[in-house]
Amino acid sequence: MPRYVRRKIRGRFNHKCFKPCGVRANELDEVFLTASEMEAMRLTDIENLYQEAAAEKMEVSRATFGRILSNARVKITDALLNGKAINIE
C-alpha cells in the first residue's frame, strides 16, 4: 500500500471535470487526475519551470516529480485520444 506524502500545491483548480462535447457524461469512461498531477503540469507547462525547480516547489524529489508528471500526461493523452472525461480529485 503506498504511503500518503504531503505535497505543496499552490494552484487553484476551478474546474473539476472536462469532457468531450456532445456526449452525455454518464456515457463516458473517465480518467482521474490528482491535485499533485495538476500541480506538476501547472509548474512545468504554465510556469515553464524545469523539473528540478518544480520539484523543489512541491517539496518532492526530482524523480518523484518526474513520475507524477509522466502519469498526468499519460492520463490526459488517453482522455484526449479516446474521448474520455477528465476528473480532478
Could you give the topology of this structure?
Elements: E1 17-18, E2 30-33, H1 35-46, H2 51-58, H3 62-82, E3 85-88
Parallel strand pairs: 2-3
Antiparallel strand pairs: 1-3
Helix pairs in contact: 1-2, 1-3, 2-3
Keywords:
single chain; 89 residues; mainly alpha; Arc Repressor Mutant, subunit A; three-stranded mixed beta sheet; 11% strand
Short structural description:
The chain has about 90 residues and is mainly alpha-helical.
Description:
The protein has about 90 residues and is mainly alpha-helical. It has a domain of about 55 residues: Orthogonal Bundle (Arc Repressor Mutant, subunit A). Helix content is about 45%, strand content about 10%. It has three helices and three strands, in the order ββαααβ. A three-stranded mixed beta sheet has the order 1-3-2. It is elongated and about 40 Å long.
Number of helices: 3
Strand order of the largest sheet: 1-3-2
Helix fraction bin = 40-55%
What is the beta-strand fraction? 5-15%
Radius of gyration: 14 Å
**Unreliable segments of 5+ consecutive residues:** none
DSSP E strands, number:
3
What would the principal axes of the Cα set say about the shape?
Answer: elongated
Please state the average pLDDT score. Answer: 88
> Biggest β-sheet, characterized?
3 strands, mixed
CATH class of the domain at 32-88: Mainly Alpha
- CATH architecture annotation of the domain at 32-88: Orthogonal Bundle
SSE order: EEHHHE
Distance between the termini: 19 Å
- Under CATH, the topology of the domain at 32-88 can be stated as Arc Repressor Mutant, subunit A
Structural class: mainly alpha
